Amino acid sequence: MTNDSQNLKKLKKLLADSNYDGKVALFIGAGVNGTLLPKWENLIKELRKKALSHIADPKSTEADKKEITKWLDSSKGPDLYDQADLIRYFLGPHYVQMLHATLYPSHRTQTFKTLIAEAPNDSDSINKLKDKFGLGTFCSTVNLCCAPRIAAVVTFNYDDLLNEAVARAEKRVIPIYGERQAHVPAHALPFYHVHGYLPRDQLKRHTDPEHLVLCREEYHRVFKSPYAWQNIVPIHLLRTCICIFIGASMTDMNMRRLTSYASHHTEGLNIFAFKTRKKTGTGPKEPLPITATQFHLAHANMILAESYSDLSKKIDEITEVLNRSEERAYHVK
Fold it and tell me: I want to staple 310 with a disulfide (CB 3.0 to 4.6 A). Which of 37, 107, 223, 305 is the partner?
């Protein structure tokens, strides 16, 4: 495993190499959204509360629901993937609606609008959002998406906050979330929503529940379809582009499967992943050897950031390298 500071230098050198003009693909996880949107674990817990209120059994009492919650939280209860299976079953036809409501609570409507309208500008309102929700990474990622040589964005998130912010920054964005959207217009930046797409505007929302990937059954559906675009597109990008993961834990089973497949069929992959070394609750920071091993098993070169502000700074450095490389290429021509 290479030292993470050397990995950042390696990435910058690769991007700045005048003899190498390879395309760059960004892989985006939930960490990009700071604390504004729930992470996967918290999303499951919030949906679980809604699911328990939809239990169809008329004999089910509040005491029963409390007992179920206690069991789900215990070490003997099902893991989060299995809990998601139960949630989908209990919510039934309300599944997509409840997922949307959990992602975009009504009390944050104005916050979403401000973020999309003004990010990544250095305005007072954006700076307040950065401080309150840890959105420095989001703003830096918007700038990176607009940099030269960014060929595609693969996101494991359902939301459209990053899509909309990049589009407002005068970059044409095309969200891809279905089989019949293979064509990407020239000069457009495709956002591949491999786990499904739930835009804020419900009038735009035409998501088939079958396109969503949250529970174990849905992961299995993707696994069993090797020629689905959710598999082919990310693997192609992993094998042919310089790939940068931002806000991803590198432990998602689908993500690990894709990087593993690509590494076994292509030598010399260029996969880099940013990692913020944060505290777990009130305890100590997570053990670095464990984190490094996880990234190594995901076939990624880890770039460690000691804080979210440090992460934003490192992303900005990558954007600057790409912008400079484009300027040099222009002068050579």
Answer: 305
